[in-house]
Amino acid sequence: MEIKTEPNVLRASRIWLALTMAVVLLGVTAVWQSAHMSQSMSVAASDDPLSAQNPSGAKTKVVLEVIEATSKNVIRGKLLQKKTEEIYLRTGTSVIVQFDEGTKLVMGKKPDIHPGAIIHVSGTTRDDHSILAEQLVILTGYVQIQ
């Protein structure tokens, strides 16, 4: 008695090949989407992210070193460029940030906003290229400037 297994073996091979290709395709898609999201979430690091890249009303995220903090909730600083998660580089770009009582303050308090402080700002670009802050994250002590 002879059993024909060859058609079953070919069918099983095709199924495994199709499954393998589907898994590879899903993996490539996941990596591509992850890279795309990572790029879109990166901190602004161009020479002037507040004019060319971000028109008025655009959401923006920057890291800055505080040069001056006024009692009227205005921060003047210099834009920092991300080198690694813990190291930022100084740039020559000035940044003005305005905030109010509705602005979320994370990892610190208002007295932590002083000259030399490092702050991550999330907010909206205004017509005058300043930023109206929605959230301030105090990074002083967690990151370094080179």
Radius of gyration, in angstroms, nearest whole number = 25 Å
β-strand amount:
35-45%
Name the poorly predicted regions.
Answer: 40-48
* Number of continuous helical runs: 2
DSSP helix fraction? 25-40%
Sheet with most strands: strand arrangement: 1-2-3-6-5
Q: Structural class given helices, strands, pairing?
A: alpha/beta
The CATH topology label of the largest domain is OB fold (Dihydrolipoamide Acetyltransferase, E2P)
- What oligomeric arrangement do these chains adopt? single chain
Largest sheet: 5 strands, mixed, barrel
> What is the first-to-last residue Cα distance?
81 Å
According to DSSP, the number of beta strands is: 7
Total discrete domains: 2
